[in-house]
Write a structure and sequence with these properties.
single chain, 490 residues, alpha/beta, FAD/NAD(P)-binding domain, Polyamine Oxidase, Chain A, domain 2
Length: 490
């Protein structure tokens, strides 16, 4: 278990500190603020749950001027757009559906899922199934993939040491080469042989017994989506926090921390105007990237630093014509196609951009700061993407574009290169010595996960704090080990 590796350093350091902790009573927890760093879904869920009881003691600090993190819906004049492609999957836990609808007040609509996967100049239904392979591919090619899938057991005589070997053992060599090899290289920007097997474990493979069963049962044919965009979750959480007298500070970056007796006593923040402020803290929960947090506390040039992230450039194309295809999302594993995923947000909810007309395409281009695609201006990126959209048949010709713009997301995906785990453990173990500091969330725990996973983390940490168990970091690490097993699904 991950926890068994993690606890080696924290247990000894926490023992003496906990004695001091008890001596200080409750560390003035009735006076200090509960500070949540980062206002993504995890941070907002945590803050909302805490604010019901702790009211004005709850403070959220967010560096952006909007809330929701990657699960945000923004506006550009008369257009609304998500930061990427988001959905509430059909296997979303029912109790969390109830949480969103009844507790938070998000209105969800059920939508047909008509994803399409580009393969050999044709489109497979996504998520694909055996019947779709037979329908689109020749019987001979389908048989070859099936035989390769069955022969994957030939690789079971040795342990997999990287992503490539693990995937071949999971789906067979031909399926791996056809669907995963180039996609992994595109998504993470590194050779699959350099990727840890966690790259597979943190992302569901689409062709396995579970996916086939879901396909036959029809459970992958629909999804849920907030009627006003994925960002409506953050908006509802924000409203509730403010109604409970919690405080949300936007556009503020973290400048530093004051530490005393192994705990954070103050957070130093800086606003957009350069003005600095200090907030007294009793508990701090950080959802910011763990390496960024570590750098602020201990300096960036340390032996434990060095986690790698993949960036994302998102191009939005508003064209006056309607997209002829019925699909809401397209997936492109091929390397020669620059984007990995394209979405038509109007098919997620007909209420979004209804008055603007036409089609708003969300084109996701994985890249890294310094890459040509990262540095390209919007017009160059538009021409590149439109060329590939035409080549793949998403568009039949150059569209009548009324508006286009792009955004850069510097740390969109964690890259699970070989050796990442040791770097993460080194950082987390050091941070874990700070008794009132918790790292949590997608970026705080270097996770590749979904919205339901973020909600679970926020709710569980909130309950842990409200039940006054938060001084027991070892107990929390046991709970946290489950979060580290979360697996993203498209």
């Amino acid at each position: 278990m991950f926890y068994d590796i993690l606890k080696f350093d924290a247990v000894k350091s926490n023992l003496l500190s906990n004695i001091i902790w008890i001596y200080y009573g409750k560390m003035n927890t009735d006076k200090g603020k509960i500070i949540i760093l980062g206002a993504g879904i995890t941070g907002l869920v945590l803050a909302e749950r805490l604010s019901r009881t702790l009211k004005e003691r709850v403070v959220v600090v967010e560096k952006e001027n909007f809330l929701g993190g990657l699960a945000s819906t923004l506006s550009d004049e008369d257009l609304s757009f998500d930061l990427g492609s988001h959905r509430i999957h059909s296997d979303f836990p029912p109790e969390l559906i109830a949480y969103l609808e009844k507790t938070i007040g998000v209105k969800l609509i059920k939508r047909s899922r008509r994803g399409a996967l580009y393969y050999n100049g044709k489109y497979l239904r996504y998520p694909p199934n055996v019947f779709n392979f037979l329908k689109v591919l020749s019987f001979r090619n389908t048989l070859r993939l099936a035989v390769s899938y069955l022969k994957r057991f030939d690789y079971s005589h040795r342990d997999a040491v990287n992503y490539q070997e693990a995937m071949i053992r999971a789906v067979g060599k031909k399926i791996y080469v056809a669907f995963y090899k180039n996609f992994a290289r595109k998504l993470w920007g590194v050779d699959p042989k350099r990727m840890s097997i966690d790259g597979m474990r943190r992302r569901n493979t689409f062709l396995n017994l579970q996916s086939i069963t879901k396909s036959v049962c029809g459970k992958d044919r629909y999804f849920f989506y907030p009627i006003h965009g994925i960002g409506d979750i953050a908006k509802k959480l924000e409203s509730s926090i403010l109604e409970n007298n919690g405080k949300i500070i936007k556009g503020a970056k973290i400048n530093g921390f004051s530490l005393d007796s192994g705990r954070v006593t103050r957070i130093i923040i800086e606003g957009l105007d350069g003005a600095k402020d200090e907030i007294e803290s009793s508990i701090v929960a950080s959802t910011v990237p763990i390496d960024s947090l570590f750098g602020i506390l201990y300096g960036h040039h340390t032996p434990a630093s060095g986690l790698t992230w993949r960036g994302l450039r998102i191009l939005y194309i508003h064209m006056r014509e309607l997209l002829e295809a019925r699909n809401e999302t397209f997936y492109f594993p091929r390397l020669d196609i620059k984007f990995g995923r394209v979405s038509d947000i109007g098919k997620f909810s007909p209420y979004i951009n209804a008055f603007a007309g036409g089609t708003l395409l969300t084109v996701e281009v994985p890249c890294t700061p310094g890459d040509r695609l990262w540095d390209a201006d919007d017009k160059e990126l538009l021409d590149i993407c439109v060329r590939d959209l035409i080549k793949t048949g998403v568009l039949t010709g150059y569209p009548d574009v009324s508006k286009y713009f792009s955004i850069h997301l510097e740390k969109a995906y964690p890259v699970f290169e070989i050796g990442w785990r040791e770097k993460f453990i080194g950082m987390h173990s050091q941070l874990d010595k700070i008794l009132n500091l918790f790292t949590i969330g997608r970026k705080g725990l270097f996770l590749h996960c979904n919205i339901d996973h973020c909600i679970i983390q926020g709710l569980e940490l909130a309950d842990f704090i409200l039940q006054d168990k938060w001084r027991d970091k070892d107990l929390w690490n046991k709970k946290m080990s489950r979060f580290l097993q979360f697996c993203a699904r498209d």
